[in-house]
Each structure stands twice: as structure tokens, then as C-alpha cells.
Amino acid sequence: MRRKKEEKASQEAPKKKLKKSVGKTLLLILLPLVAWGMASIILFLNHKATKTISATAMMDLQAETNANAQSIATPLQMLKSCYNTYADTMEVVDFASHDQMQKYIAYSLKGQPLKNSG
User: Could you give the angle at which helices 2-92 and 98-105 cross, rounded to 10 degrees?
Assistant: First the structure.
């Protein structure tokens, strides 16, 4: 009877060691592997998100810049057109005196479509 207990105890000992060693092996191998995999996935997704957000921000910034440039350019273009008209007229019309020329261009001072451009 004693022998059977000893044999039974000796058979259980390797099973416990086997269970411990399998658990330990799984813990030592799988845990770092899973952690590394999760970290890799997080870094990859972070990189992709950064690129996407940067691209979207640049497109929005470019669109806003174009809109601002257009809103500034329109009144300036009108002002330039007005001054070109004065310049063309002064080249064609033969004014009798310098005072007449100044009187003609005095109205150009009123053509200021940009009130606050500072």
C-alpha cells in the first residue's frame, strides 16, 4: 500500500511540474509576444492617424488660405482697375495745366474699397 502511495505521489509530481512549466512557458513566451503585438498595432495605428490628421489639416489650411486670398484680392483688383483707368486717361487726355490733372485725380482718393486692411 505504501508503494502505491509512493508511485501515485511520484506520478503526480511530474504532472505538477508539467503544469507549472507549461504555465510558466506560456507566461514567458506568450505574454511578451502579445504585448509586443499590441504595442506594434498601437504604434501603426498612431502613425496612420497622424498622417491622416496632418493631411486633412493641410487641406483645410490650404482651402482657408485660398478663401482669404480671394476675399483680399477682389477689392484690390477693383482698386487696381480704378487706378489703371485714371492712368490710361491721363496718358490719353491732354490736360491744359497741372492743376487740372490734380483736380481730375482728386476723385481717386475716394475710391478706397479696403477700409481696414491692417
Answer: 140
